[in-house]
Amino acid sequence: MKNKSQFVYVTYISSSAEKVWNALMDPEMTRKYWAHLNVSDWKVGSPWKHEDSSTGETHLVGKVVESTPPRRLVITWASPADAQNQEKHTRVTFEIESSGKATRLKVIHDELEPGSEMERGITRGWPVVLSNLKTLVETGHAMETKELFAFSKK
Amino acid sequence: MDRVFKALADPNRRKLLDLLRVDNGQVLGDLSKHLDMSRQAATKHLKLLEAANLVVTVWRGREKLHYLNPVPIHEIYERWIGKFERSRLRALYDLKEELEKDHEK
């Protein structure tokens, strides 16, 4: 077994799989619940970046590894400083399934270096991102993101 | 939300979550080593935690790995904690941690 860590997060959203899928890659949506724009053409092999919506700084980069709308999206995920360093690239898998009237969104973040800054960041970040995504998709309004992501700017 | 509170209202189930927090992605066998109960009882507790979405499982080959999913707990936090209270609560929590650490020495 590889010496990398993995985290899994799940949320149930009262909405359709298509809407949840769209919320992951529409920069206007991600701006509202994530305070960042997710920018890419989302084709397999294309790069994507995660851009701070107020400063325009790029905080994360990666590539689209797999895309099966509206069910499964796999991307790599690294800090821009590690863009060329494949060893430091982590991986995020989004799985979207219907579950009764709701949609189940599962996020698997793996290939993480145990104890790394990235691991610390994502374990604090995903619960915030996912509950805010749920709120936005269900109600049309997201929570104030500035306060939510205050920890990421330390 | 009822299911989350019911699942949390048991010391054994909280212990299971603590174990996963320290070492995420464990199989049933590893988890039950730390608990004073049968495998069957541990399975039952894990099922309740899974139904409350506090534990998520992933298959790796023939192994079923259990992960702590803190998203429902975060939803509780969002519901009752106002946005202006957050930094003050954080500061209070850090202070408590710091003082209690010294106290143990």
Task: Annotate the secondary structure layout.
The complex is a heterodimer of chains A (154) and B (105).
Chain A: E1 5-13, H1 17-25, H2 27-34, E2 36-39, E3 47-52, E4 58-68, E5 72-77, E6 90-99, E7 102-112, H3 117-139, H4 145-148
Antiparallel strand pairs in A: 1-7, 2-3, 3-4, 4-5, 5-6, 6-7
Helix pairs in contact in A: 2-3
Chain B: H1 2-8, H2 11-22, H3 28-33, H4 39-51, E1 55-60, E2 63-68, H5 71-80, H6 86-104
Antiparallel strand pairs in B: 1-2
Helix pairs in contact in B: 1-4
What tags apply to this protein structure?
heterodimer, A: 154 residues, alpha+beta, Alpha-D-Glucose-1,6-Bisphosphate, Chain A, domain 4, B: 105 residues, mainly alpha, Arc Repressor Mutant, subunit A, 2 domains, 6 helices
How would you describe the overall organization of this protein?
- The complex is a heterodimer of chains A (154) and B (105).
- With 154 residues, chain A is α+β, with helices and mostly antiparallel strands.
- Chain A contains four helices and seven strands.
- A seven-stranded antiparallel beta sheet of chain A has the order 1-7-6-5-4-3-2.
- Chain B is mainly alpha-helical and 105 residues long.
- Chain B has helices at residues 2-8, 11-22, 28-33, 39-51, 71-80, 86-104; strands at 55-60, 63-68.
- In chain B, helix 1 (2-8) packs antiparallel against helix 4 (39-51).
- The model of chain B has no long low-confidence stretch (mean pLDDT 91).
- The chains are: A alpha+beta (154), B mainly alpha (105).
- At the A-B interface, strand 1 and helix 3 of A face helix 5 of B.
Low-pLDDT stretches of chain A: none
Biggest sheet descriptor of chain A: 7 strands, antiparallel
Rg of chain A, Cα atoms, Å: 15 Å
CATH class of chain A: Alpha Beta
Count of individual domains of chain B: 2
Q: What's the arrangement of strands in the largest beta sheet of chain A?
A: 1-7-6-5-4-3-2
Task: Give a brief rundown of this model.
Chain A is an alpha+beta fold. In chain A, 29% of the residues lie in helices and 37% in strands.
